[in-house]
Amino acid sequence: MTQTNQQVTTEESFAPVVRTESLTKHFTENDSWLNRIRPNREVRTIRAVDGVDLSVQSGEILGLVGESGCGKSTLARTILRLIEPTDGKIYFGDEEVTSYSGSELLEFRSKAQMIYQDPFESLNPRYTVRKTLVEPMEIHGIGDNKQERIQRAGDLLEEVGLSKEHLDRYPHEFSGGQRQRIAIARAMSVEPELIVADEPTSALDVSVQAQILNLIFDLQQKRDLTMLFITHDLAVVRQICDRVIVMYLGQVVERGPTSELFQHAEHPYTQSLLSSIPLPDPNLQRESIRLEGDVPSPINPPSGCNFHPRCPKVIPPENWAHSHEEWRRVLRYKTRLKNGDVQPEAMRRELETRQNSVTDDDILDALYEEHVGEWTPSHLGSQEGKKNSTQELPPSVEEEIRRSLNVAITDSNTKAVKLVDELWNTVCATDIPDEIVTADMRSASCHLYDETMPGQPDRAIGVVGSKAKSSAPNLEERK
Ligand SMILES: Nc1ncnc2c1ncn2[C@@H]1O[C@H](COP(=O)(O)OP(=O)(O)OP(=O)(O)O)[C@@H](O)[C@H]1O
């Protein structure tokens, strides 16, 4: 892997408040007791968080972004030990908290608090505001006596924009925004060092979202809090976060200081996310990058780089002599074949409902049309995309695809997959990319930045993460 003499600053150059090493959380699908006693039940693993290294520095707001289902909430809950990690380590300051239990865990929970997305669910409807705020103080030994705790509860209410008169009311007597203010006051009541805010405004009316966001930001500034802020709203990230981590399918794909990442995203996934943010000036135009297909299931993530089936910049096979758009069309076919979406028998049955006799050639033509024929280019605005959307694939490529379809029809899907793998292989499908340092505090997990790849931009200046710990002598030692 790349090593140079260039000194770079990475997250590891500082003393973080919280840090994870290869943090992993897998769930078991349908893990109910009823399912567990079923004979021959199929056990499938959901790889919700898959080896995440992150650190949140003292006093910063670290944004965690990614599409729905990429593992943000699971990562947050695992860091706070609200659910147990499957593997990996969590450090709070210098101490490893992964194995904490009893009083140690209780103390950790007072130092690291969560603000949830939905204040309707996070507040106990049977507790008055007084009890909601005073009870955590009692449990964690904050305040000398009951009177002092009640006094603190009233002060906290005022700090979050409510008043002491609200102490004896119940959650149902408040609006959504007010309830979130109470939840924020509760998180603050135990004087935490770390706040994990999980989409704290997304369940609220648009009219109050900005107020709650400002409140969180003001408290963070005033109390010099360290914060992990989870959101799918990139405009919010740009507004309040110092640094950003981008997640895709349980893994970190890019990280960096907010302004730099927004100015120049390095990972193709981040580039596509940013391309969807509306520009402030309606006269300005930007090419929107449309991703192919949906986010794959974390039960069966793609091989190699798990973004590769949707990646607009997926690296073509070494001997590829055609356009990139054509390569992506072939890759889409390959992905469908691998996922079991190319189904000769189902196609045969469908054709039989329409015609008297069905030959293998009919099935082949119909499968080709379904899985290769229609194609919407990823770069809708690009000239190359427009041109290729109306063009046939090069004859040699079409011939090979038809050959593999014939194998799927007359032999097996497994053999067809083997054939297309031999024909068109890409490093993006075979190798998991290292997290490559591309600049100070910046890294991307993408083969495009791996300088050992022929013809790739030479931007790599190191490797980060636990995978690379032993081989990254140029990264500054932690201070
Ligand atoms: N308790 C659970 N049991 C089984 N699967 C789970 C559980 N919690 C989460 N998952 C799965 O783990 C994956 C990650 O979910 P998670 O809620 O962490 O994503 P997210 O990025 O926070 O999504 P969102 O933005 O929609 O909240 C999803 O596929 C989800 O279905």
UniProtKB/TrEMBL annotation:
Keyword Nucleotide-binding recorded: yes
GO molecular function: ATP binding; ATP hydrolysis activity
Pfam families: ABC_tran, oligo_HPY
Gene Ontology biological process: peptide transport; transmembrane transport
UniProtKB keywords: ATP-binding, Nucleotide-binding, Plasmid, Transport
UniProt-listed SMART domains: AAA
Occurrences of domain ABC transporter (ranges): 18-274
Disordered: annotated segments: 376-397
Family named by the database record: Belongs to the ABC transporter superfamily.
Name of the protein this chain belongs to: ABC transporter ATP-binding protein
